[in-house]
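Check the record.
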Amino acid sequence: MNSKKKINIATILPYKENYSLEKASAASLWVSEFFKNSKFRNNNYIYGNTNSKNYLTKNYTNINLKSLKSKFQSTTNEYSYKLIKEINNKKINLIEIHNRPLILFNLVKQIQNRFIFYFHNDPLSMKGSKTIEERLFILKNVEKIIFVSEWVKKRFFLNLDLKLSTKTEIVYPSVNKQKATKKYKFITFVGRLNHSKGYDIFQKSIQKILDEFPEWKSLSVGDEDRRSIYINHNQHKELGFLSHKKTLDILNQSEIAVVPSRWEEPFGRTALEASSRGCATIISNRGGLIETTDHAIVLKKLDDNNLYKEIKKLILNDKKRKHIQRNSRKNIKHQVLANTKLIDQIRENIFPTYNVNFLKNKIKIINLYNQGQKLNHRLFNISLGKKFTNGFIRNGNDVLEISDRDFIKKNKTYNLLQDSRVNFQNYLIETCKNYNPDLLFFGHTKNIDLDTIKELKLLNKNLIISQWNEDPVMPDLNYSRQNITNINLYSDSVDHNFITTDPSVLKKKINSDNLHFFFVPVDKNIERFDVFKMNPKKDLFYAMSHGVNRATLKEGTEDNRVEFLDKLVKKISKIKYDFYGFANKQPIWGDDFNNALINSKMALNLSRGKPTKYYSSNRIASVVGNGLLTFIDKKVQMGDFFNQDEIIFYDNINDLSDKIKFYASNDKLRKKIAEKGKKKYFKLFNEIKITKYLVDISLGNKASLIR
């Protein structure tokens, strides 16, 4: 079942991209740096056209081009033809093409393979991706598109539906952490010495600086074929074009680096490298430059006067300059090792390491859950099963939905529920015979007989069966005991058990080595509001209803939340709270729930029982995912996933009431934290990532919840 598959990768550079130590540029540096740390480096074959023999890494094959236009019509066609011959001679599973859509077009027509395409530049400026039709062709024919910045991605999707972006990923050019080195009073410019790179802006500003501060010197690293801009000053030195290593050495020695580009930089590697080498870096706000580092000074207005002022401030303020330098070196935004792992994970996700019936990574899944038809779908916006279906499909799988409770309710015979249960067993067995699923995935049911599971396993020995549960599983909570019993009913019969609480809670209660934690996902179609952009009338939102109580507890039942909320409302008497299922205020469902939720600035994520490690219900997805500032007990340990500037953690009820009052009166900060919280949640635990994790674990693949 777990037959590990070797992945052979062909990496194709643009034919004008020099893959040498002396003249490497952005795409070559990208490929070489991620190659060195990749788990696939022994099976990764790199192709390009380079004059130098001093290649950046091993496994490089140089494609000699003679530009035989009489035969191939263009150098691109010749390059493509020779690449096809090379690739056909090796058992290549994955072809990665950098920055040349026309090469992709040629290879797609000639080779049956899987493709990843990397955009290092503005797609709208490149042959083969300027038009909508061309970009749709790329989306259709690749497994993934990787962009070097958010800006490049936005350019690609100009006039395209963002719903198509599920095939895309942003992986930034990256650097390694560096040790501090001795600095000299150098102000350095790296890049083409031309107008688009802002060299004229640097020229005018630096001449004033050097006149004013004779102890400082300036350096320029780079060249320009049609040069028209020169700096004539005895404190300035032109170093010309240097190798990448020598350029980094210069940045290591420099106090200040300047990147005043007019050009919409796709990313701006120079800014990242300067920052990582401990330079106090000044950048323009063009293109992807602002994505390179969190510690640069961004020019509000791009002209020589403003650049002069910012350089002068850094020279005069030693403390500020050193602070920026330390932060830049220690807190590098994009690191090679982390992003190499991301790229390798993307590659692995294209090739599942399990052996099931599938075509091009498509598996067949039966997703069995309560769809809530008898409740008129009032749970549509908190339906975990629906999110799973969406995620499975968006990951390229085929899904058949079954609602067990609705089937049994609908098929009662003479009001005999038992007959309907028997009919459901037959229905499930016959459905599996017809559909032949690879995975049966079910949650919150007692309607599948254990004998039915045995029969399904006999029918298909490769069938994987997994169950999931979202409800609380705290052993000390009366409400949880029945829930644990339900999980235990199937725990030994299924292949995997998934819960929304840290598995350590149930280790003594469930005899299962296949107990896994998963985080309740957000779904872009369900958690679709940005409350941080709105102006809600209420301050604090909370809603509960679990079938035991509506607005008041039934006799003989208990809920510690009621006592907690009673105390809380007394402490926040001036706060406009909007609580449901509490104090005789009826619960709300469906769109009424959404309307109430988006009418509050903040929300409380309070669950039944004692705070338990990692316990998450759909409540946290609803409030954080819709952009409400959310409060959660610190003891739940969500701090392992979210920072304090993304979710507000409290120690006790007094701490909570103080923080509610504080953020209720600090709107700007409240909105900022809520926005960051939603962004982090969608990054870590969206429906696509969570279902990919569930499938991988179910099918015996190694997988991590946080990638």
The domain at 531-684 is CATH 3.40.50.2000 (Rossmann fold). The chain has 23 helices and 24 strands. Confidence is low (pLDDT under 50) at residues 353-360.
